[in-house]
Amino acid sequence: MAMEDLQRTGQGVSAFAKTAMVIVCLSLFPLITWCQCYADNAEVLPKGRSAVYIEGKLYFPVDERFGPDGDEEKIAEDFNTTLNSSVFPDLSLLEAAFAPFGVTPGSANIGKSVVSYEYDFNIIEFNYSYGITDRLSAGIKIPYWDVKNNVNASLDTTNATFGKNPLFGVAAPPLGAAPLAPLTLPLPPPLTVQKLTTQDVQNLIGKGLDVNGDGSIDIQGYGFDPIKSWSRSGISDIEAGLRYQYYKSNNWRLAVTGAMRFPTGREDDPDSLVDYPFGTGAWAALFRVHQDYVGTKNLLLSATLKYDLYLPDHKVMRIPDDVNRPLTSNKEEVDRDIGDFFELEVSGTYEFYQGFSFFLLYKFGHKWRDDISGSMGYAYNVAEAETNAKEHVYIVGFQYSTLPLYLEKKFPIPLTAFIGYRDRFAGENLLKSDYLNIGLTVYF
Length: 444
Hints:
three-stranded antiparallel beta sheet, twelve-stranded antiparallel beta barrel, 4 helices, elongated, Porin, mainly beta, 444 residues
């Protein structure tokens, strides 16, 4: 699945945490005079031959995503909102309590959150393949991810209407029973209602808010980790499988690939709003059908159909009442079936000079919606919302191969190197991202 960054993009439960897959073809055939190694194709290794392929993906900073309608928006869009009773429902109770002081329903808020996310990705993929027979190859891919989320989070209290009540726990009810009070509440000097700080809101998102400083939790929080910069690195989901070339002629090469994706990568943390998963936590069966046209000199045209079939699993998730309101205390281990993924990849590679080639690739990917169910009666359809996705991607680049020189015994090592630029230029429910990638394949 060629959607390396189709993941949760800052929303606590809008399962953008999806999976990544490209079965990279590592090819060497002693009778051809050039090699195409970037795109997926129908070539296999000869019997007894091996190939080691390393690819680095160097992302440009990512701070936008494609929304459910395909529109571009900031990743942290859902976190920039007025913090009123739709975010903290207890504010509606305070509105009723202070109605005698002129507080109207829907008017209570503690300010506006100002949040931005910017992801930095660096991905290295280690691949090895081996020719079992002249028509059957085996391969494995081990991706290593290094991810950082640069977060800025603050509270704008310019239009806030409620703050900390200085009479809380001191005066008799009802004033002494309300942890927050209207900023306009008439109090005898020097008492004033204090606006909340950024740290106060972090506490509300986390364990809760201690209003009077006595060490007790006066307003219960949601149990999330602080919204701040985050970074992790580690191995993503490992893939391994077989490719069989069932037909080869002067004009055509046809092959099929079957593989498995193992859930070895780091999963999404339901208690974090800023983390980024390296994997889905689910097993997946991978199917590929490859068609190559090689009937034109120095030109290779390839098309690959891909299908990723995810197996049902169990996952601890946050289940909110609104897909655009990720703050929720509802947490449950649910039954989950990640939506399957389909991709069409087409590419062309032209050798314009001995060993030097230009390639152009296009991908269209579609992921179906997740199926989530549980036993606690939460709004599971909300957790399913926006888990479908689409992408349109192009990749352009150059590569150089020593295979012609190797076959002429003018170079001791057969290898291929490339550099490319990849851009996801349209999509739905995934990151808007682009990167430079470089790769090297060595055959032995």
